[in-house]
Amino acid sequence: MIRYSTATRPTLYFYGVTTTKSSIMKVFPAWAAQLGLKDAMIKGVDFPLHAPATDYREAVEFLKHDPLSLGALVTTHKIDLYNACRNQFDEIDVHARFMGETSCLSKRAGKLVCHAKDPISSGLTLDGFLPERHFERTGGELFSMGAGGSTIAITWHLMQKSRGADRPSRVVVSNRSPARLAEVRRIHRELGAGVPVDYVLAPKSADNDAVVANLRPGSLIINATGLGKDSPGSPLSNAVQFPENGIVWDLNYRGDLRFLDQARAQASQRNLHIQDGWTYFLHGWTQVIAEVFHIDIPTSGPAFDALSEIAIGAAKG
After folding, report:
1. Full residue range of the structural domain in which residue 264 is found
2. Domain-embedded: residue 2
3. What is the three-class DSSP state of 43?
């Protein structure tokens, strides 16, 4: 049982699995000083994977009524917490309601507000590293392993009709849970983007290997499973064969990062572009901090670059 105590300073909570291992515990105090958030602090709260609904509800109830507990970033538990606590939120933003998940809780005018920030933070990250008009030029596909909130947000961003021809020629989502795949299918159906999507039940790494083997050159392959961070391993086996000129993105930046090692082993031979989760980490946290503390934080340019440098220095310290 988690014990909650009244906050004596403006507090941002981090609802995760192994929060003490996250760089944010060192980074946040340095950011707070840079951003002028006097006396602000961060506090991690660890839940087991797929914790009982009562555990999530207790955390949200405390947050809602404790005056100096200002908000929370939610990772790993985005869908489970949303499902357990949706009737505790006073407001739910359009992304959270559509995607059925929350990555941010904040307070506004005495109301507890539920947000889904992943569509914004994943979009900023993707647009930062994808070559210009990448899918339009290459005809590449998107394969995202994991059917949680991050995959929902990433596919939502890349399937938008406003992107015109610069969308994946096909999207593939894999997961070990039929129920999660059904939920992603429902969301994609409501989106009505017109991009072909395959949903693959993948209880074994060989199932994901088979998908990767059939991807077109230039495809984007994403590890959105949590494997390599929340638990060790990779959704792929060492026998996997990445597509030529592929882009490989691991949403993790810490852990055993076996998925990244598998990609690096083929980087030269297959001409792979490899991206870890550090920039996604930066955008994910700065979007939440801006919302919780009601401040403006740039998403690019010198001020954002300064926060990145501060984070790198603090994480190594």
Report:
1. 120-276
2. no
3. strand
